[in-house]
């Protein structure tokens, strides 16, 4: 569980509705938090998903919570069971569901890549859960690695969670909520980008998350909406994925809906055939039967020949010592080695003779820098083949340059885990180990993580500063360092999609086994000039809401099409009444429209503007076209072909008026940037908060 924070919705020990005692926080997001709790009546451990107070009064988010609660009618071990949807005495809406103990697939991906058979087992289990959900008319729409929990760390007990879409919609979040699209772009089916979702959309997401689990990283969906749409029209790149996993992914992720399996039940049937082979030969192939690979076939033959020769030599009295007390037999024959701990060597297992034991001890010392004590290895019979000592020595040599490594050899199988300094050295180590496995005939399971163990935030900041070309690029973390498995979230604006590519190229080799999420918008030169002139200040609760003037519904994507009437309002916490508000729109032609204050409304005091609803102060700045009939002084717009492109709504909160005199209704970007730079230099402590929002007009 996470450490408590002052701003948490609930606190440990708090009892909700006289029933659920909060034990601790298990997750935080932009719209709410998740808790582990105990039902004081039944003693059952549950999970509670709660909305922050400002969203608990929002009908859209409450509707999503109600939708998620509908899942309580589904009874299947692969689907999390929901109990109720309720409201606390303080007004927060919360869901109660089963507590599923175990890591998510995302958590596992942060440590290692999943093996093909593990993924096939997970796919079978998730498909069974989808059969149950789809049978009730429920489409998940947001299936992804962080929404599947491996109960008790077991792929066979994978469990689907989070059937609602009420997830993090703050800056940097990847889950999008709205009428037009819901899901994560990386895993969403092509039809979801058009606002359509059906059961086969979940099958596409299942295939995409299987590919992500095999590669060990989130797939790149594109830097711009246009690029995302184009990428979704092409098959996913499954290069290097072994069969039968490759065929399963390609079938599930067919871009055309009709080319995918007809339903989840047919996916279950196909995976049944793959995971439950009927012939002995198929079982050996599926299980990677040890002793069937070329290297060990030869080793077994050599052992037989040596045994025959040794017997003849003993008959003639040429081999001394064979009449002594025989060595014990080791079954299985093992060697276990790990990096030293507290300066002490860690080596144990078997050796066929003293010379081999000494040679393996030296190989361990070379790899670790610490020599093991005499007698660390026990002499025994039962060695799998004459090539085993060389294979053991060679794999110890491969540990040089790696940290936290451990090796377990058992018969003809090997398990290796280690930490490489970076991704490049990790990939090189993986290549060497795979070559070792092919040469030795061993069946290898490897888990090689990429470091560094701790990545300073300052290191990432230096890389971002060097490549920023449209205002500053920010990280979610402000100080300290990133641990292995953390997500590095980069936000801001860039001058081109190529900048995003350069950021990935610069950061990915250096961050190791951490996820990189770049949520940067591409802006034209005029918008970049404004972005660069804005002060680097937090929003401090200030935000910009966009909606459709015809329906009044929120537009979370910020994309509007020809003929639509965008509306906008500046939102602030209801209790934030201090300060002066200034709002402008930078349009696609490179002009700045100063819309608050204006010639018809000189009011700037935040406390005197807008209305307070649902815990928010809402100040409308772009209005419905229908409202102009009652007040022609309002500002409203309709998207035409002359407006196509990106505009920016800018809101600045200051202690005193931002400018000494009211700005003209319309001015050039150059004029505005010069004025803003001048006022910042004259009164640098005046500014308190800045919020921006892109408005993207398309045909």
Automatic annotation (TrEMBL):
PROSITE patterns: PROTEIN_KINASE_ATP (PS00107), PROTEIN_KINASE_DOM (PS50011), PROTEIN_KINASE_TYR (PS00109). Transmembrane segments: none annotated. ATP binds at residue 49. InterPro entries: Kinase-like_dom_sf, Prot_kinase_dom, Protein_kinase_ATP_BS, Tyr_kinase_AS. Pfam families: Pkinase. PANTHER family: MITOGEN-ACTIVATED PROTEIN KINASE KINASE KINASE 20-RELATED (PTHR43289), SERINE_THREONINE-PROTEIN KINASE NEKL-3 (PTHR43289:SF6). This is Serine/threonine protein kinase.
């Amino acid at each position: 569980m996470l450490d408590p924070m002052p701003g948490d919705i609930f606190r440990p020990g708090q009892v909700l509705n006289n029933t659920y005692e909060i034990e601790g926080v298990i997750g935080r997001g932009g719209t709410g938090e998740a808790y582990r709790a105990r039902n004081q009546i039944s003693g059952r451990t549950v999970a509670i998903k709660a909305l922050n107070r400002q969203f608990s009064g929002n009908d859209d988010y409450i509707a999503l919570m109600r939708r998620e609660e509908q899942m309580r009618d589904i009874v299947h071990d692969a689907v999390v069971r929901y109990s109720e949807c309720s409201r606390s005495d303080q007004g927060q809406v919360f869901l109660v569901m089963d507590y599923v103990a175990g890591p998510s697939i995302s958590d596992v991906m942060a440590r290692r890549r999943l093996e093909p058979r593990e993924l096939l087992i997970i796919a079978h289990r998730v498909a069974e859960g989808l059969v149950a959900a789809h049978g009730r008319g429920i489409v998940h729409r947001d299936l992804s690695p962080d929404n599947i929990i491996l109960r008790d760390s077991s792929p066979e007990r994978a469990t689907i969670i989070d059937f609602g879409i009420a997830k993090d919609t703050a800056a940097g979040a990847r889950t999008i909520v709205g009428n037009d699209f819901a899901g994560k772009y990386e895993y969403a089916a092509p039809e979801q980008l058009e606002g359509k979702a059906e059961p086969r959309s979940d099958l596409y997401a299942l295939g995409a998350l299987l590919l992500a689990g095999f590669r060990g990283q989130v797939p790149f969906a594109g830097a711009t909406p246009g690029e995302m749409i184009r990428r979704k029209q092409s098959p996913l790149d499954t290069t290097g994925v072994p069969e039968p996993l490759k065929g399963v992914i390609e079938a599930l992720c067919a871009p055309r809906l009709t080319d995918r399996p007809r339903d989840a039940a047919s996916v279950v049937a196909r995976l049944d055939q793959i995971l439950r082979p009927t012939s002995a030969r198929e079982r050996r192939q599926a299980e990677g039967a040890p002793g069937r690979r070329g290297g060990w076939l030869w080793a077994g033959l050599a052992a037989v020949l040596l045994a025959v020769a040794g017997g003849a030599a003993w008959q003639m009295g040429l081999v001394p010592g064979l009449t002594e007390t025989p060595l014990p037999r080791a079954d299985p024959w093992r060697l276990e080695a790990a990096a030293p701990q507290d300066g002490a060597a860690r080596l144990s297992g078997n050796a066929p003779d003293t010379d081999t034991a000494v040679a393996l001890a030296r190989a361990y010392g070379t790899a670790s820098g610490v020599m093991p004590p005499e007698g660390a290895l026990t002499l025994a019979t039962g060695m799998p083949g004459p090539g085993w000592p060389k294979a053991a020595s060679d794999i110890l040599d491969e540990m040089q340059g790696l940290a936290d490594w451990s090796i377990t050899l058992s018969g003809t199988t090997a398990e290796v885990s280690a930490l490489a300094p970076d991704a490049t050295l990790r990939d090189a180590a993986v290549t060497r180990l795979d070559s070792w496995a092919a040469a030795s005939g061993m069946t290898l399971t490897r888990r090689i993580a990429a470091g560094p163990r701790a990545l300073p935030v300052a290191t990432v900041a230096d890389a971002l500063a060097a490549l920023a070309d449209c205002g500053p690029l920010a990280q979610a973390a402000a100080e300290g360092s990133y641990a292995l498995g953390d997500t590095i979230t980069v936000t801001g604006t860039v001058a081109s999609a190529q900048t995003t590519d350069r950021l990935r190229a610069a950061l990915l080799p250096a961050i190791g086994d951490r996820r990189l999420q770049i949520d940067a918008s591409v802006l034209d030169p005029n918008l970049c000039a404004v972005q660069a002139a804005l002060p680097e200040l937090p929003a401090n609760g200030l935000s910009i809401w966009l909606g459709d003037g015809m329906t009044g519904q929120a537009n979370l994507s910020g994309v509007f099409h020809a003929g639509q009437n965008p509306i906008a309002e500046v939102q602030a916490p209801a209790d934030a009444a201090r300060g002066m508000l200034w709002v402008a729109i930078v349009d696609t032609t490179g002009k700045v429209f100063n819309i608050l204050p204006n010639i018809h409304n000189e009011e700037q005091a935040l406390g005197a503007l807008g209305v307070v609803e649902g815990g928010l102060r809402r100040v409308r700045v772009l209005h419905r076209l229908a409202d102009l009939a009652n007040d022609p002084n309002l500002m409203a717009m309709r998207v035409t072909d002359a407006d196509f492109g990106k505009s920016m709504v800018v809101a600045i909160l200051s202690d005193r008026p931002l400018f000494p005199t009211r700005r003209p209704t319309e001015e050039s970007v150059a004029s505005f940037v010069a004025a803003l730079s001048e006022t910042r230099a004259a009164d640098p402590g005046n500014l308190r908060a800045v919020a921006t929002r892109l408005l993207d007009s398309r045909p």
